[in-house]
Amino acid sequence: MKIYSKHELNNYSLSLTYDDISLIPTEISREKTRLEVTIKSSFLGKKLTVPVVSSPMDTVTGIAMAKELSNSGCIGIVNRFDSSLSELFSNGNVIEGIQAVSVSLTAEDQLLEKIATNNLIVCIDTANANNAHVLNKCEEIKKKYKVKVIVGNIAHGGTLKQLVDAGADAVRIGIGGGSVCTTSVQTGIGIGQVSSVLDTYFAREEQKLMIELIADGGIKSPGDVVKALASGADIVMLGRMLAGTKETPGEVIKYSDQLWKKYRGSASFGVKMKGEFIEGEETMVPYKGAVKSVINAISDGLKSAMSYLNCESLEELKKINTFGVLSTSSYLERLPRK
Ligand code: IMP
């Protein structure tokens, strides 16, 4: 079996996603236990205990989620669809613990000024960063205010320099991979998430660009988080993994003897206005309780993976060069059987 370096994996003939690859431990690990590894990092100047950022979706990140993620050493990006943003600034000063908010392309100066005054991160929440209006908005915000700006989304590193030139500090990588996304079905756009992350990572390295990379969409498990970071992402953005937790906006619903919460795409029927193009689904996910348990599972999985791979830090994990490409049968063999 061929062991692929990151570079070789990037040149693989087919587009790959998380279930297509695996990480191969090839060294004697120097760590005695997984407690010896550190997964501390920083993202846009904020110190993180676990490299996770929540998606700015209306069924994922409201104020409660953003606060709890901040308490857990992660970042939550408050969505722009429900009343969260206005609640956030209702008392003049921003609610403590909030680090980031998302805005639309038409965000006005009044909101942006409040964001800048409170030293929050701005996420220009659009489906396609490769758009002149998005880049103009990014440039305008960076010229007027001293804030960090996230743009998105891209599926490939071909335009990364233009995003950096427009002032973007971070980019969301992933088109078509989200679990409630129908973009690829509707438009035929998008490639596998691992290939998207790898391509963008190499675009950054080869052109020596200063921009942080967010692997966004398609992450189903702590193992996928590890694969995203090993492929070159600085942080992962989660929707479905956090959906259904206590801290998400929305009611807990009892149906068929089980508890559920709603999870829907930002371009789904329920969010979009009449007449707009629908590129997202709406679904119910099982109620999961406190989000802290999801974050702990990710933290544990990440530390364990790093002790297998002889990595003491996330920087070392990012340099991993031992990837396997799985056949369908070897992928299935990896799954627990009942
Ligand atoms: P998940 O973690 O796989 O559920 O993916 C979450 C990501 O899906 C978000 O961060 C967005 O990038 C993307 N997304 C959210 N809503 C939509 C939608 O309606 N259509 C397409 N993509 C979406």
Write up this protein.
It is a single chain. The chain has 338 residues and is an alpha/beta fold. It has a single domain (6-331), classed as TIM Barrel (Alpha-Beta Barrel), CATH 3.20.20. It is 31% helix and 18% strand. It contains twelve helices and 15 strands. It has helices at 6-10, 63-71, 84-88, 109-117, 132-144, 160-165, 183-187, 193-207, 222-230, 291-308, 314-318, 328-333; strands spanning 21-23, 41-43, 46-48, 52-54, 75-78, 100-103, 121-124, 149-154, 170-173, 212-216, 235-238, 253-255, 258-264, 282-286, 323-325. The strands form four sheets. The protein has an eight-stranded parallel beta barrel, surrounded by five helices. A three-stranded antiparallel β-sheet has the order 12-13-14, with no helix packed on it. A two-stranded antiparallel ribbon has the order 1-15. Helix 2 links the parallel strand 4 (52-54) and strand 5 (75-78). Helix 9 packs across helix 10. The mean pLDDT is 96. The site of inosinic acid (IMP) has 24 residues, from strand 11. The site of inosinic acid has 24 residues, from strand 11.
Key terms:
alpha/beta; TIM Barrel; 338 residues; 18% strand
CATH superfamily caption? Aldolase class I
**Structural domains: how many:** 1
Estimated structural class: alpha/beta
How much is the average pLDDT? 96
- Cα(first) to Cα(last) distance is 29 Å
Bound molecules: inosinic acid
Widest β-sheet, arrangement of strands: 4-5-6-7-8-9-10-11
CATH architecture: Alpha-Beta Barrel
Order of SSEs: HEEEEHEHEHEHEHEHHEHEEEEHHEH
Work out the strand percent: 15-25%
- Biggest sheet, in brief? 8 strands, parallel, barrel
- Please tell me what the overall shape is: globular
User: What is the CATH domain class?
Assistant: Alpha Beta
Helix content: 25-40%
Unreliable sequence segments? none
Tell me the number of strands.
15
Write down the Rg. Answer: 19 Å
Instruction: Give the CATH topology.
Output: TIM Barrel
Query: Tally the helices: what do you get?
Result: 12
